[in-house]
From TrEMBL, chain A:
<dbReference type="GO" id="GO:0046982">
    <property type="term" value="F:protein heterodimerization activity"/>
</dbReference>
<comment type="similarity">
    <text>Belongs to the CENP-T/CNN1 family.</text>
</comment>
<dbReference type="InterPro" id="IPR032373">
    <property type="entry name" value="CENP-T_N"/>
</dbReference>
<dbReference type="InterPro" id="IPR035425">
    <property type="entry name" value="CENP-T/H4_C"/>
</dbReference>
<feature type="domain" description="CENP-T/Histone H4 histone fold">
    <location>
        <begin position="557"/>
        <end position="651"/>
    </location>
</feature>
<comment type="function">
    <text>Component of the CENPA-NAC (nucleosome-associated) complex, a complex that plays a central role in assembly of kinetochore proteins, mitotic progression and chromosome segregation. The CENPA-NAC complex recruits the CENPA-CAD (nucleosome distal) complex and may be involved in incorporation of newly synthesized CENPA into centromeres. Part of a nucleosome-associated complex that binds specifically to histone H3-containing nucleosomes at the centromere, as opposed to nucleosomes containing CENPA.</text>
</comment>
<feature type="region of interest" description="Disordered">
    <location>
        <begin position="371"/>
        <end position="399"/>
    </location>
</feature>
<comment type="subunit">
    <text>Component of the CENPA-CAD complex, composed of CENPI, CENPK, CENPL, CENPO, CENPP, CENPQ, CENPR and CENPS. The CENPA-CAD complex is probably recruited on centromeres by the CENPA-NAC complex, at least composed of CENPA, CENPC, CENPH, CENPM, CENPN, CENPT and CENPU. Identified in a centromeric complex containing histones H2A, H2B, H3 and H4, and at least CENPA, CENPB, CENPC, CENPT, CENPN, HJURP, SUPT16H, SSRP1 and RSF1. Interacts (via N-terminus) with the NDC80 complex.</text>
</comment>
<feature type="compositionally biased region" description="Basic and acidic residues">
    <location>
        <begin position="464"/>
        <end position="484"/>
    </location>
</feature>
TrEMBL record, chain B:
<dbReference type="InterPro" id="IPR028847">
    <property type="entry name" value="CENP-W"/>
</dbReference>
<dbReference type="GO" id="GO:0007059">
    <property type="term" value="P:chromosome segregation"/>
</dbReference>
<dbReference type="GO" id="GO:0051382">
    <property type="term" value="P:kinetochore assembly"/>
</dbReference>
<keyword id="KW-0539">Nucleus</keyword>
<dbReference type="InterPro" id="IPR052484">
    <property type="entry name" value="CENP-W/WIP1"/>
</dbReference>
<keyword id="KW-0995">Kinetochore</keyword>
<keyword id="KW-0132">Cell division</keyword>
<keyword id="KW-0137">Centromere</keyword>
<comment type="subunit">
    <text>Heterodimer with CENPT; this dimer coassembles with CENPS-CENPX heterodimers at centromeres to form the tetrameric CENP-T-W-S-X complex, which is a subcomplex of the large constitutive centromere-associated network (CCAN, also known as the interphase centromere complex or ICEN). Interacts with NPM1.</text>
</comment>
């Protein structure tokens, strides 16, 4: 039976701890070793096997009872330390230490105290021996044996032991010893109470930190205190990053509050989480240490996500800065726009778009000039789409359109974002701005079909068009066109307005547009719906994407690719990729046919399992197996040896045939 | 016992049969059927031979048209020819199988036809 040793040894040591011991938390063996010298003699029932040190305390208690001595004495920490040392020593080297021999010795009562002394004296030595395991210590232990017997030179021996062992102990600093020291020096209640859940958590951290520091026991107390904060900080990063990832959704939801708020939130949350979850730190810090020790094992997803958020925020800030400077050259807003628009594409909400709106407005006149260039088209489309998106959010305030760009921005900020409308706005803007006929048609169609904005926007758009007509300003007209083109679902008024707008802004737009816009109305929605999907998937790809059919197709294709490779090998000629795809299709069909045939054959035989006989029949029907060429010949030719052995029955020694027929 | 007595000189097979893949394909197609262990390898053999024939045909097509690269059209044409030659889909050659049966049972069917045509058909169905 093995009870917790700490307790047992504690009681044992208490027998001896009546001595006066300096209550220093220092790890000073000399003092502690000298202490038991003055301890009183106790009877000690002989301990039979040295491994059963746990029973020592029982014996001690028995002895105490015999002598009718007081049970427990005061002086907590030293006792605990002693007990802990002895406990750890016993735990480690209960059987191997030479000092254990001392315990076995049967000593008469007179020397009982000496024996115990020897034990007490040897136990610290044992504890240190556990660390060192040097022959010198063993040699010393034998003299202690002698001393025990004599009882005269114990002080010297113990002192010698202490000398040796203290030095030895100081030399070696293993995590175990450090932890042990911490446990010893720690207050009693902390270890024994069930609150140890908190304690073990920091103690491993402490151990780790102490290991890194490799400092002495007395200093370790201070170091662990310093280490947990650092580990806390490290741990914070990981949950902080995770929280940042989670925060994205919250961030998007709270876009109205502004960018700085969203930035502050993840940081604030990270700090808050640190205080609450101490246990989570343990999980976080190991990850950190792992990544530090083995960078290859570091997990990638967290870093990726963090970068996304940071980059996104930075880009938003950049765009806001870009917006702030309207007096830039033609190229700069255009140059910044692609990045902005890319961001904008991912951002369905109006907040970033609001910031973009002035830049878009600025860009629009610039873009109109550079429409001829193909390279600009994409940019212009994007910018226009962003602009249109911004304008989309301005359904109920056409008056502000006339007022000015700044006001528009405010209005846009107020308006609710709408993904589909935004996209449709983009599409609507693109045909209006660009000179590409087909694309313009398609985009217009998209804008008309995909947009799910309220039908009232169409009327508003028409109103806007009228107003824009009246003003004749380029930007306003463009803006009016964009919302009207984007927000309208299938409003004829919108469609009619758009050509009107186009006509009004012929200075910048090509004459083709109205022509394209008119045939746009009667489109095939399916075609249009497919197109908006194209930009959408590309945008949302970095985000969570459902991988439904993917795992199903991949293993099938990888299996087929095996045969496709064989095909390319047998062909001995370079092949086109299309040809390889064709081969895949052929193989698919082939497998289907094969399965059907096998089913028929097995059903013909009245079986539900396909057997090699069915396969042979199949090959015979295919003409591969004749009277001249048997199946075995084919097996021999084309299959590797291992499979041939499995298929073709062969006679082995002992009159056995494998595979069995 | 017999299997263990053999010792392979090499520890890996150069061209392994994708047995798992084949079994999965068969299960997907015919979930109510089972595929035996050895037949798995024979299916692989069949596939190898089919691919071999297909490759040969497509190569010949490419040579005929004096192409250095095998193109999609060559493969398509080759597939048509190969599939015809393999006599896939029993339905296409069902008549042939029935004919075989009829040949076997002409003696019996002769007597059966004496009495009734339906009996003959019934008999044939029983045989099948």
């Amino acid at each position: 039976m093995k009870k917790p040793r700490l307790r047992r040894v504690d009681t044992f040591v208490q027998v001896h701890s009546q001595v006066k011991v300096p209550p220093k938390p220092g790890y000073n063996h000399r003092n502690t070793l000298l202490a038991p010298l003055s301890s009183r003699v106790r009877t000690a029932t002989p301990v039979r096997p040295c491994g059963s040190l746990a029973r020592v305390d029982l014996n001690a208690a028995a002895g105490r009872r015999r002598l009718r001595l007081p049970q427990r004495l005061g002086g907590g920490w030293l006792r605990r330390w002693r007990s802990a040392t002895i406990a750890t020593a016993s735990l480690r080297r209960a059987r191997s230490c030479g000092a254990c021999w001392i315990l076995r010795i049967r000593i008469p009562r007179g020397d009982a105290g000496v024996l115990e002394l020897g034990m007490a004296g040897s136990c610290p030595s044992v504890a240190q021996k556990a660390l060192l395991e040097t022959p010198s210590s063993r040699r010393l232990s034998t003299p202690t044996k002698m001393n025990v017997r004599r009882g005269s030179h114990r002080a010297r021996s113990i002192g010698r032991l202490a000398h040796v062992h203290t030095s030895g102990n100081l030399e070696e600093q293993t995590p175990r010893t450090l932890l042990k020291n911490i446990i010893l020096t720690a207050p009693e209640s902390s270890i024994m109470t069930p609150k140890s859940v908190v304690k073990p958590v920091p103690t491993p951290q402490v151990v780790r930190s102490s290991r890194q520091e490799s400092s002495r026991g007395s200093l370790e107390l201070q170091l662990p205190e310093l280490e947990p904060p650092t580990t806390l900080a490290l741990g914070l990063l990981a949950p902080g990053r995770r929280k940042q990832r989670l925060r994205l959704s919250v961030f998007q939801q709270e876009m109205d509050q502004g960018l700085p708020l969203s930035q502050a939130e993840p940081r604030g949350n990270a700090s808050a989480s640190s205080l609450t979850s101490s246990l989570s730190l343990t999980f976080a810090s190991p990850l950190q240490t792992q990544s530090v020790q083995r960078p290859g094992l570091a997990r990638r997803p967290p870093t990726r996500r963090a970068v996304d958020v940071g980059a996104f925020l930075q880009d938003l800030r950049d765009t806001s800065l870009a917006l702030a400077s309207p007096g830039d050259s033609l190229r700069t807003p255009v140059a910044t726009l692609p990045t902005d628009t890319v961001l904008e594409d991912t951002q369905p909400f109006s907040q970033p778009l609001v910031g973009h709106s002035p830049s878009v407005y600025h860009s629009l006149p610039f873009l109109s000039h550079t429409e001829a260039e193909n390279s600009e088209r994409a940019v212009s489309r994007r910018t226009q789409s962003s602009g249109s998106r911004l304008q989309n959010h301005n359904p109920g305030k056409p008056a502000q359109l006339l007022a000015g760009k700044a006001k528009k921005i405010d209005v846009l900020a107020v308006s609710l974002p709408n993904n589909s409308s935004a996209i449709s706005g983009e599409d609507g803007v693109e045909p209006l701005q660009d000179g590409v006929g087909e694309e313009a048609e398609e985009r217009m169609e998209e804008s008309l079909s995909v947009s799910e904005v309220m039908g009232s926007t169409g009327t508003q758009g028409s109103v806007r068009t009228e107003k824009s007509k009246g003003h004749g300003e380029m930007t306003e007209a463009l803006e009016a066109k964009e919302p009207e083109g984007s927000s309208e679902d299938e409003d004829i008024s919108g469609r009619t307005a758009s050509p009107e707008l186009a006509s009004s802004t012929t200075e910048f737009l090509q004459a083709r547009r109205p022509q394209f816009l008119e045939p746009a109305p009667p489109p095939s929605t399916t075609v249009l719906s497919s197109e908006p999907l194209e930009p959408l998937p590309t945008r949302h790809h970095p985000r969570a994407r459902t991988h439904g059919p993917r795992p199903r197709q991949d293993p099938h294709k990888t299996g087929l690719s095996h045969y496709v490779k064989l095909f390319s090998f047998y062909a001995k000629m370079p092949m086109e990729k299309k040809a390889l795809e064709m081969v895949e299709k052929c193989l698919d069909k082939y497998f289907q046919h094969l399965c059907d045939d096998l089913e028929v054959f097995s059903a013909h035989a009245g079986r539900k399992t396909v057997r090699p006989e069915d396969l042979e029949l199949l090959m015979r029907r295919q003409g591969l197996v004749n009277d001249q060429v048997s199946l075995h010949v084919l097996v021999e030719r084309h299959l590797p040896l291992e499979y041939r052995q499995l298929l073709i029955p062969c006679a082995f020694s002992g009159n056995s045939v494998f595979p069995a027929q | 016992m017999a299997f263990s007595t053999t010792v392979f000189q090499r520890k890996y097979i150069k061209r392994k049969a994708p047995r798992g893949f084949l079994k999965r394909v068969f299960k997907r197609q015919k979930p109510h059927l089972r595929l035996e262990t050895s037949s798995d390898l024979l299916v692989h053999l069949n596939c190898l031979l089919f691919v071999h024939r297909l490759a040969e045909e497509s190569r010949m097509n490419a040579f005929e048209n004096k192409y250095g690269i095998i193109k999609k059209e060559h493969v398509q044409a080759a597939a048509k020819i190969t599939k015809l030659s393999t006599n896939f889909k029993l339905g296409t050659t069902n008549l042939g199988t029935f004919g075989l049966h009829l040949k076997k049972l002409t003696f019996r069917s002769y007597y059966k036809t004496r009495f009734c045509e339906l009996l003959v058909s019934h008999f044939l169905r029983e045989v099948d």
